Amino acid sequence: MSTDPLQIAIDHFRNGRLTEADNAFNAVLLSNPDNIDALNIGGMTLFKLGRHDDAVKRLQQALGLNAKNPGVLMNLGMVQRDRGLIDAAEECFAAALDLDPENELISNTLDSLHRQPITGAPGALQGAHAPERQIYMSATVSLLSDRPSPLNILEIGSYMGASAITWAKALDKLYDGPGSLTCVDPWDGSGDAGYQADVRGALESETAYNVFRHNISTCPDAVPVLVQRGTSRDILPNLETASFDIVYVDGSHLSADVQYDLQEGDRLLADDGILCGDDLELQAHECDLAFARNNSETDFIADPKTGRKYHPGVTIAVFDFLGTVSAFSGFWAMRKMLEGYQPVDFQTASGIFPTHWPAEFVELAKQAVVRDGYLANIVD
Ligand SMILES: C[S@@+](CC[C@H](N)C(=O)[O-])C[C@H]1O[C@@H](n2cnc3c(N)ncnc32)[C@H](O)[C@@H]1O
Question: Is 365:131 a contact under the CB 8 Å cutoff?
């Protein structure tokens, strides 16, 4: 084992021990502030820790020592990309390619910059512990595949657009006709106050909005994405009654807000359409209901009955509005029928893989869907 402090720091980084790596790079830089490798890989450590602004500073320091280092330029480009600064990223990748024109990794990265969604920004993959939800969302579109066009989807809470791309791709692949997606979000942190610091920071700094804009630019051309910036209370009252076929509730997790979104969602949903949402890890009959009610204005907390972490505000609002619902790994959906909302099942439905997510998540999603057995099939 190496005793060289820089090598030790690099080993920590390579093995994913990011906090140890950060401490070790800091120690190296204390004694040698101009160590370009410590600045470069130390910068990428900060990036992986979600500290994007600090990462930029450190990589720029490295470039101050050698502005013609293609590796540092590539790294800075990756960080700028995940901050949603696509032009700055492009500049870095182009400069790196000028210095190393035969390098395929650089040319491929530059080439795909505008076509690939950004999924590495803080919290960009919401619900990453259950990526199969994306497949169930797409299956919801397939349940409405015979519905007259256009098929209009409303998404409340879009963040960086990972779910919006899922809806747009599902419309494109599983619905034969024109459709649209409307995304409502303030993208400024003024919604639910309970988000983790990295998500809050991304919302407050415009990173989330910039990444969202980039990500929806990668949606299929055939699907118009309409962007409505504001909370659901600002925007939904201005939308036409019964003008949507699917309403997806994934904004604030606090009970009063979710209740509002469900009530307005119901008004906006056409007959026979589907009201659905995210973050229903536990239903009322599965958790300690009294505890959930007492904590319904808390974002995320552990349920004393099961020990599982869940969103009590979602549990309570969904239960009070709809009772027990059909739910699939935290994604829930109900169909608006004359006799009231009815459960859906996916036994005749098709889903698609969320190929805009990194490959490891697509694989996990696939395994979960096969294990759950809710779906008729998955199409490519
Ligand atoms: C869980 S994230 C949405 C994740 C996104 N659907 C996805 O899967 O990629 C929640 C989003 O809801 C937004 N939000 C919070 N309160 C809201 C409200 N009252 N109305 C609309 N959006 C809200 C936040 O700004 C945040 O971007």
Answer: yes
